Each structure stands twice: as structure tokens, then as C-alpha cells.
Amino acid sequence: MPFYVDISWIYFCVVFGIALICSLIMSLLSTNFYTMHVVIRKFSMLDLEFPASPQELATFIKGIFKLPVEISKKSLWALKTQLYFHFLFIPFAYGSIFIACMKVSFKMTYFGHGLFAMLAWIQIIPLLCDVVESIYLLKKIKPDPVISNPAVHQAYVLLEILKWGIPLTAAICCFGAAFYFWLIGMYSFNSLHFLLIATAEIIIFFILKKLTKKSEKEMMENILVAAA
Length: 228
Prior knowledge:
The chain has about 230 residues and is mainly alpha-helical. Helices cover about 75% and strands about 5% of the residues. It has nine helices and two strands, in the order αββαααααααα. Strand 1 and strand 2 form a beta hairpin. Helix 1 (about 10-30) runs antiparallel to helix 4, helix 4 runs antiparallel to helix 6 and helix 6 (about 125-140) runs antiparallel to helix 7 (about 150-185). The protein is globular and about 60 Å long.
């Protein structure tokens, strides 16, 4: 397997676009995430990914089963569906970062050339972490989830740090390097239309997210009516 892989920007646009579509679908599913945590309240995947303690993670999951039946079923379905759908999102999300790092690598010389290629390949680590996380959470979704021991919880926290830290570091480095090349005029005019495509994808993503987003007030009113 070659360490350096020269991939066209068109593949980045395709992979990045699919990742955005998956992200939009998961965002829509997350609007149905509710739990009974003292009162009926919303939660997000970040609440499950960064719980303050093993007890808090179990409390969030247990609270879903304490909701009124219809709301509980809807919340459970949305959570499980998002976790299963996440397996489809993972390769495209990290794949887009991989391609971006490789493209920047070919613009670099010496140290930078190898550094960005390494940043591309180590996306395998957060990809595996994401897979493990999804499996771990799926197994936790029970009416009475087992509270993890401190060692398992610390391993889970480390997994989340790697999952978020590695791709964010790579993305920031790629953006910084690309911006530098833009400032010094070291770019190909042939690649500009790919930048426009990626920008258009991001704009369309936010427009669709805005159009499909329900107001928190309206959703909570529906939840309270259903719970009454």
C-alpha cells in the first residue's frame, strides 16, 4: 500500500457531499432525542459521548425508557437509527479528511509532505474509535443499563478524545495550509471549481438544515401534550 496517494479533488467533493447528507439525516433524527432526567428534557449525542460519569450515561439511557410509551418509542427508534446510520457516515467523514490531507501533502515539500500524509493515514484511528463507540452505545441501550466500572469509563473517555482530537487537528492543519497557499498564490486555477462545489455543498447543507429544523418550543409543546 503506497504511503502517498494522489487523489483528485472531485473525489473529495463526492465523499464530502455524502458525509454532509448523512450528517443532515442524523441531525433530523436527533430532534427526537428526549429523556426523563428529573424532568422531560432533550439530549444530544455529545451528552452520551462525554458523560461526566458512568452513572450519568446510564441515567440518560434509563430516562428514555421512563418517558410516556409513545415518546419513549420514538426517542429510542431515533437514537438506535442514528447509531446504525452512523456506520455509513463514518467512512465518508474520515475519508474526506483523508483526501484533503493527501492533497495538501502533495503541495508540501520535505517535512510537510510526510506530515500531512501521516495525518491522512492516522484517520484510521478515530474511524475505529467511532465504530467502537457506536457498538458500545448500542449495547448500552437497555431499560436498566449496566454502569461501567471506572477503568472502562476512562477508556471510553480516551476513545472520545482520540475520535475528536485527531480529525479536528488534521482539519485545522489542512485549512491553515490551504489558506496559506491561497495567500501566496500557490494554487491551481483548475482546482478552484472544486472549491466552489464544496462551498455550494456546505451552503445547501445549512439551508436544508434550517428548513427542516423544528423550533424547540414547538417540539416541547408536542411532547408535553403527548405526556399529559
